[in-house]
Amino acid sequence: xxxxxxxxxxxxxxxxxxxxxxxxxxxxxxxxxxxxxxxxxxxxxxxxxxxxxxxxxxxxxxxxxxxxxxxxxxxxxxxxxxxxxxxxxxxxxxxxxxxxxxxxxxxxxxxxxxxxxxxxxxxxxxxxxxxxxxxxxxxxxxxxxxxxxxxxxxxxxxxxxxxxxxxxxxxxxxxxxxxxxxxxxxxxxxxxxxxxxxxxxxxxxx
Length: 206
Ligand code: ADP
Ligand code: MG
Ligand code: MG
Prior knowledge:
Layout: H1 5-21, H2 23-33, H3 38-54, H4 61-75, H5 80-94, H6 103-121, H7 131-143, H8 149-162, H9 186-202
Helix pairs in contact: 1-3, 1-4, 1-9, 2-3, 2-9, 3-4, 4-5, 5-6, 6-7, 7-8, 7-9, 8-9
The structure holds adenosine-5'-diphosphate and magnesium ion (2 copies).
GO molecular function: phosphoenolpyruvate-glycerone phosphotransferase activity
Protein name: Dihydroxyacetone kinase subunit DhaL
EC number: 2.7.1.121
């Protein structure tokens, strides 16, 4: 399977739909272990993403992802805005120069996205942040030789669920120490929406 401009724009529309329908849920998760704005931040960011995409015509996947990155960086705010911005910027850089993106190019660019996230947020896997979902998805993609939307959804879901049992050592949730345990990490839940939406777009959903 290769990624086309149409799939990547569909990916972003799907993500926006899920974020908008779960805006209050995401904020309630952040209310439990943060400052309660994650849904608002993400909804604002992805609304801006789809409006940018709708107004632009693209010839490469990389250009779409670059606009996604820039728009998230300037519209999401909080801790998560620059982090999601960095991840999508790395995906854009890693997929540069080709109209269609093949599987191995996407996998390599996911590695760069995870490295960029870790560099910016200084978080390792297991610290109850979005890194847990991004790095699990990247590791899973390495084990495959093509996209498998159903398994992609499962990995995104299980890695998101695993954050519930973790103690946060980065970000606002880390102020709660042991009391952060028993709650899902909001940024991992929105990352889960991002990767289930990728699975949707690979299955041709718009
Ligand atoms: P803020 O905490 O500034 O209000 P958000 O609520 O939008 O920002 O985002 C919180 C999410 O950001 C967390 O759930 C977590 O997934 C992610 N996050 C916070 N700090 C880090 C970090 N240092 N590294 C990776 N992800 C982080
Ligand atoms: Mg917050
Ligand atoms: Mg905040």
